[in-house]
Backbone:
């Protein structure tokens, strides 16, 4: 039944050979991998204005040069990641690039930040999208957290079904959002050009504004850079592309960068022209849409697609997290289970872990985004900085033909990312300090896990000629609880294992019971030696364990192995197990993990 | 570590031989078994007045005759249970009495009601006690549920430590409460006799009051009978008494009945004399104490001990529930685990089940008692009625010397209990209907469980001469995942089991991998046959299960048994298990419950 529910939710299992069919073409890849980056224009420009408004509306014109700065940063990031795609065609993004050029710890810092960052991506974008919905339907405000959790579950299921299917579903909202913003920007500029839109109050570019300092401008720039979260997703996901993967990925990246640049500049320009001030209740995009369209159907279309893309931005996390986890697991820094492909060929353990972790974050933070966003942005810019520094090192080391412009691009990118990171730490320490605690902890864990896997691997590896000493024979112990068919069945089995010494062990709680049982046994199984142990404390495991220790000690001297044969009857229906003390399960688990004995369970299946 | 925490909380384990030392003398038994009954005087008289106040204060004098009615009911209950103690010296109370005289279903109705009733006892009395505390410290009101849960946990731990120890701790509050009420009643009556207390407004006994109907009086009587909950506890707990258990129990019962009668009459009389009206914020006992003592230290002493005994009334449930569960488990109506004595010789499974169930109730009802009390009272009077009817049948059937007065006592008791039960159903159906749903369900479950145990017993029983056919030999299957020491270890073991056919099974996910592995294997273990299975869907269990089916079918034809030998390496530290896919655990569980094969696990303990 569980299995048929699973089939219904995630679909029939796919054969490994069907993997190729699950790859993405460019159109679908753009939809699935760029929703995070593109959705950032819904809040990036606003972040700039929120900083500038602390000085005054006269400073709003600075948003234009700051936007240029952000666009420049975007260009260096896009160009740099394009270089990364070709240099590392098997994907892995910041983790792989940092690891191979800057060493393992830099790689782990990048990988650790990104792992957490993808969880934050999901939590933040779903919460933001839910806010947009509950803003429209205030009655739902009390169940904010529940709605957000429901969305995460839905997106998790979509991703468990597989990337192709989720791409089909997710492509529409992304393209509709792009369409809506193009309509908005196009209409706005057309109206301005034809003079049919009245400009808002805005200071001319270059007007001096009192109180503007370099610090404020840098802070506005850093805030605006939050619009760039998500641009690294494509370089992580190259293995998901159809062949030729790297060139398809590079084209998709350029297309995404162009779209992002156009949308970003358009929004910043219109906001400036209409003199829009950030307000708590109404977003900047919403204000622009109202100025441009009025409150008509196009306004609601813009708002609706914005809400939708914010929720779907979570999907970028679902594409990137499992692939990053695969890279870390291949290098043995996280558990091996992240390497396993599920029924639908996705890395289901990664998908489920991501879903569960982001649900935990949403519940812990009551789906309130404001405390998570700075952490989220730092988590992006740390790996940005590391990967571009890594590329610098690569060019310097390899010096291929025409490396100097490439090196310069990465240098500019690395420097700017680092500045943004530093500004975040300087201006938002109360929100971003957890990353300083978290990163050392996770890197310690990564190393700890690696050390364990290395130790295990070494102990399991077969050394060339050395062979284990063959076993001379077996000592077989059958714990018995009564004179029943189950015990008979187990004794029959034990007798068939030769060469061996067989003994039955009975654990008595009461003295009188002991003698009675011994006599009955003699009549029933005169050829099987019975050992009776008395348990003062009504425990079965302790006397049995002590007895096994003694037997094992003697057996190992003559190269005999000890086998404990456990009789177990299996009820016909699963629920009936709760009606029976699970002594055999307890004994089995205890012996297996604590003692060096073979544990054999002889099932006796009941027929009714 | 888990073990030493357990030692710290519940104490060192006790030998079975120490059971005698855990028995109760009369003083401790009175404290431990009567807190429920005695604490009822804190709310019983109030329940009567709450009904009468609906007619008017002129009707308050009816509380005197009603109290006489309740005292009469109390006397018949005490006398009847005294008769039960001697008739059934091994305890069991209503369940045993009803079962042996009225048949199994009557017994199960009584037993089922009482099981739930003890859970309600704990939930109701702890919640009521918590209310008394948070009424004194209103700041704690928001954490009501948490406090109540904490008390339940504390009482559960006390009971896990064992009855003697909990008796020592619990004896003081009970005796202090009795002392406080004696002081209160004594001072009150002394002041009235010496004329130093001014009487409140109260109508003389016999004054006609408009609107008083038989229905109202019966309802007030039923409400007042809630003061009698808990009187059956002693008859259930006879096995906990020191020898001679029945006569000690009977003496304790009489003492408890006398105390209860004195306290009840005193409180009812003082309430009537001072003309006290029930109020939502202040309890009747608190009003009496204020009239009698004024707001001095004695007043607070009375209030404090009342709060304490309400919480400790829960302990009655802890004495009675596990013993009732033992009786039901002996008759195979509930799981066998309730028969097992824990480390401290208490029936720990019963204690823990009771604690967990009442915590669930407290959380579900937000520690609000008003919805639980009617259910609780019905749950008591149903078994009262059944057990007394059972005694009637017993006297009629056996007719021992001087049976007629005994029969009359039980007849009066049975009739009155039944009337109280009927009144509860008539006047409080909206609160007590769940019991009408619950009882049929639990009785169905009881029978279902019994049927299962009977079926199992029959299948396990060794028929006189019939012997199982001996096993000719074994087919041994070793699933292998690679060429490692773990596999080598398992193969070595498998080779030592003769006579047998041995094969290794490798499950390949990739075609190329398959051939490579086969070649390596030929070099490594040329004498062990390797079967390679291809898994299209990346599942290990499905191909293995299909293969085992084929092998098992062939083996059973020639009386061979199939053994699956599973290689498993055991990491040195427990936490490290999460780093390894638990394939062997999954395979083991699946094969054991689904297939008729012996499952042997060969552990390979890692050294670092």
Residues:
């Amino acid at each position: 039944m569980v299995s048929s529910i699973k089939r219904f939710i995630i679909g029939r299992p796919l054969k490994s050979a069907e993997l190729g069919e699950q790859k993405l073409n460019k159109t679908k890849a753009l939809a699935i991998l760029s929703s995070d980056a593109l959705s950032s224009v819904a809040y990036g420009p606003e972040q700039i204005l929120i900083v500038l408004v602390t000085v005054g509306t006269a400073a709003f014109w600075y948003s234009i040069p700051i936007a240029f700065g952000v666009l420049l940063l975007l260009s260096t990031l896009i160009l740099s990641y394009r270089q990364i795609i070709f240099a590392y065609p098997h994907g892995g993004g910041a983790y792989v690039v940092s690891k191979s050029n800057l060493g393992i710890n830099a790689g782990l810092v990048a990988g650790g930040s990104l792992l957490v960052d993808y969880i934050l991506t999901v939590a933040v974008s779903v919460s933001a999208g839910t806010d947009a919905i509950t803003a429209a339907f205030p009655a739902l405000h009390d169940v904010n957290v529940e709605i957000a959790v429901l969305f995460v579950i839905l997106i998790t299921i979509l991703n468990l079904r597989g990337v192709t299917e989720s791409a089909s579903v997710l492509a529409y909202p992304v393209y509709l959002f792009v369409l809506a913003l193009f309509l908005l920007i196009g209409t706005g500029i057309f109206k301005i050009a034809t003079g049919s839109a009245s400009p808002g109050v805005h200071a001319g570019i270059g007007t001096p504004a009192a109180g503007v300092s370099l610090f404020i401008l840098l802070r506005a720039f850093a805030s605006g850079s939050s619009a760039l979260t998500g641009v690294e997703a494509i370089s992580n996901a190259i293995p998901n592309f159809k062949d030729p993967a790297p060139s398809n990925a590079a084209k998709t990246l350029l297309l995404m960068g162009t779209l992002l640049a156009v949308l970003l500049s358009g929004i910043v320009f219109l906001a400036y022209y209409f003199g829009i001030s950030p307000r708590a209740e109404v977003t900047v995009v919403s204000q622009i849409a109202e100025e441009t369209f009025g409150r008509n159907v196009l306004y609601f279309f813009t708002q609706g697609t914005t809400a939708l893309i914010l929720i779907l931005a979570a999907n970028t996390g679902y594409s990137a997290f499992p692939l990053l986890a695969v890279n870390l697991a291949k290098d043995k820094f996280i558990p091996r289970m992240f390497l396993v492909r599920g029924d639908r060929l996705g890395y289901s353990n990664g998908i489920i872990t991501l879903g569960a972790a982001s649900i935990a974050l949403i519940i812990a933070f009551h789906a309130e985004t404001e405390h998570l966003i700075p952490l989220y942005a730092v988590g992006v810019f740390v790996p940005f900085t590391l990967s571009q520094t890594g590329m610098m090192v690569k060019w310097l080391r390899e010096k291929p033909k025409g490396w100097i412009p490439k090196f310069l691009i990465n240098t500019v990118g690395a420097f700017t990312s680092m500045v943004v990171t530093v500004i975040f730490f300087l201006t938002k320490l109360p929100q971003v300090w957890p990353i300083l605690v978290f990163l050392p902890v996770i890197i310690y864990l990564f190393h700890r896990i690696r050390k364990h896997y290395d130790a295990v691997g070494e102990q399991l590896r077969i050394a060339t000629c050395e062979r284990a000493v063959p076993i001379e024979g077996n000592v077989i112990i059958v714990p018995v609880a009564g004179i029943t068919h189950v015990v008979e069945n187990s004794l029959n089995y034990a007798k068939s294992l030769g060469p061996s010494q067989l003994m039955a062990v009975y654990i008595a709680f009461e003295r009188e019971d002991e003698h009675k049982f011994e006599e009955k046994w003699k009549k029933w199984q005169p050829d099987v030696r019975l050992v009776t142990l008395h348990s003062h404390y009504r425990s079965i495991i302790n006397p049995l364990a002590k007895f096994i220790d003694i037997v094992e000690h003697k057996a190992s001297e003559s190269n005999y192995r000890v086998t404990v044969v456990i009789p177990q009857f299996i009820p016909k229906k699963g629920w009936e197990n709760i009606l029976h003390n699970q002594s055999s399960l307890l004994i089995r688990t205890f012996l297996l993990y604590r003692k060096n004995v073979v544990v054999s369970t002889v099932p006796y299946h009941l027929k009714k």
Q: What stands out?
A: The first strand of chain A starts at residue 473 and ends at 480. Chain A touches chain B through 74 residues (CB under 8 Å).
